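Dehydrogenase: structure, please.
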Amino acid sequence: MNLTDRVVVITGGAGGIGAALARRFAAEGAAAVVVADLDAGAARAVAAGVGPVARAVGMDVTDEEQVRTLVADTEQRYGRIDLFCANAGVSTGGGVEVDDAGWDRAWRVNVLSHVYAARAVLPAMLARGGGHLLMTCSAAGVLTAVGDAAYTATKHAAVGFAEWLAITYRDQGIRVSALCPQGVDTPMLADGLAAGHLGARVIAASGAVLTPDEVADSVIAGLAEERFLILPHPEVAAYARRRAEDPDGWQAGLRKLVRRLRA
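Here you go.
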């Protein structure tokens, strides 16, 4: 996909990767960039920084009616949506002890929001014979987020759903990409480090933390090549192969890392 003259919607657009995507898409010549976020004020600030092509919308991705309204209003205002970026995400920083409310929130934000987005945008995209969905799934979706059970489980589900969409709709002109970065310098990582979450410490110890703008560079390249898996950290592909070929050895290596960090 070439971003010139495209209409783009980004959820979770008020910071981190979402804000970087908004800036980069505008720089690439997008006709409109809709910055949607639960924090309406922060979304407005990002849109103001992006410029006149950007529009801010306050909305909750876990409310399907609000997702439908976002899509309908955008299509009415601009005539279409070329690229929908389902980018909102949450972590818990915990394991099986996380309560049901925490698991439910992770499920609704990290998985169901993608389902709601697909339900809303696919009819018009299919009618036009084209469109692209970009889903921020995280490297946790192909590996494991050590220290965060709910994040791991829901991000695996998100990758699985994205793959299902790609297989089901590719021949009808719909492109699907799963964005799977590892460590990114975002508020989510900073908050995890401040709270002492093991997963955040593992990411920081890896020494491979990218900026959101670097992730946006990878997204532009991935969209241009219509890749399913967009891996800003290329080493994730090698890790995934190692995990598939030798799951016991892969797990042993992670356990060793966890023991070192806990010590």
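Notes: The chain has one domain: 7-262.
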